[in-house]
Amino acid sequence: MSKKVALITGAGQGIGKSIALQLSADGFEVALTGRHLDKMQAVADEINGNGGHAIAIQSDVQSKAEVDQAVAATVAKLGQLNVYVNNAGIAVVDPVAETTEAEMRRLLDINVMGALFGIQAAAKQFKKQGTPGKIINASSIAGHEGFPMLGGYSATKFAIRGLTQAAAKELAKDHITVNAYCPGIVLTPMWDEIDDKLTTLENKPKGSALKDAVDGIALGRGEEPKDVSNLVSFLASDKADYITGQAILVDGGIKYV
Ligand code: NAD
Q1: Is 242 tagged catalytic?
Q2: pTM recorded for the entire structure
Q3: What are the positions of the active site (predicted)?
């Protein structure tokens, strides 16, 4: 029987890379998509060197055509699609009052439109195959509570929860589940950028914003990408067949819902 196939967006670094490595270790063939082909290829080479099977595809989630093409290329090369991880995302650090129209539109284009296009492309392919499928979206603790200086970002991560719930209800009849992961303070390049901007805006020493955020975590350490990919591994597996429409926190104890 052919191996199941997972596509991960924004898989060149951080959480997306960790998800790609984990799903490969779980036995999936993986398609890595992102804007920078060289970064995707480097992760694919690592996976292929470890005995897995990965392909790299250049695709910007802001473009519906490119998202559709990424699914088509995955199916052409790997035969099918079973799991789609809408991981790509950006953060913008600014007070709500100073968030520019251009910044907000970019946040919406990447974090929300990108996820919408991904849900649409994946659901279309699952229905064409006549197979069950799993769609897994990146939300955040900022999708459960608006964070100061991250207002626009928080709005996009709330939007992911709305899309996840609505799509889960609509697609359940086709045996397609839709869930989201909600990380906390993950030690990736995204938080390096957030710390840099926050400390500049608040005139504080570099690293202090990240330290303050990590100090507030009940389990006493910053989150590793692996903490997130462990949850995604479960959500992508048969063990999560009866879970849909959920936005699950994996934050070491920051938000309690
Ligand atoms: P990251 O910045 O390290 O990686 C994000 C990836 O998305 C990068 O590879 C980037 O190139 C890619 N990307 C950005 N715009 C894209 C586009 N238009 N098309 C395709 N790919 C694009 O961030 P990360 O920390 O690994 O975050 C991954 C996801 O998890 C994001 O959706 C983020 O919002 C979410 N998240 C992160 C944290 C955190 O603390 N780092 C917390 C909660 C949620």
Answers
A1: no
A2: 0.98
A3: 153
Q: Of all helices (H) and strands (E), which one includes residue 248?
A: strand 247-250
Please report the atom of ligand 1 found closest to the CA of residue 184: 42
Integer Cα distance of 19 and 13 in angstroms: 10
Per-residue pLDDT band at 2 (split at 50, 70, 90): confident
Q: Any residues with Cβ below 6 Å from ligand 1, and which?
A: 9-10, 12-16, 34-35, 60-62, 87-90, 110, 138, 140, 183, 185-186, 188-191
Q: 1-30 in b/e burial notation, b at 16+ Cβ within 10 A?
A: eebbbbbbbbbbbbbbbbbbbbbbebebbb
Closest CA to 32 of 44, 50, 14, 23: 44
Q: What is the mean pLDDT of the chain?
A: 97
Range 36-50 burial, b when 16+ CB lie within 10 A, else e? ebebbbebbeebeee
What residue owns the CA closest to ligand 1's atom 35? 138
125-177 pLDDT, tens per residue? 999 999 999 999 999 999 999 999 999 999 999 999 999 999 999 999 999 99
pLDDT at residue 1 greater than cutoff 70:
no
Q: In this structure, what token pair is assigned to residue 139?
A: 């939300």
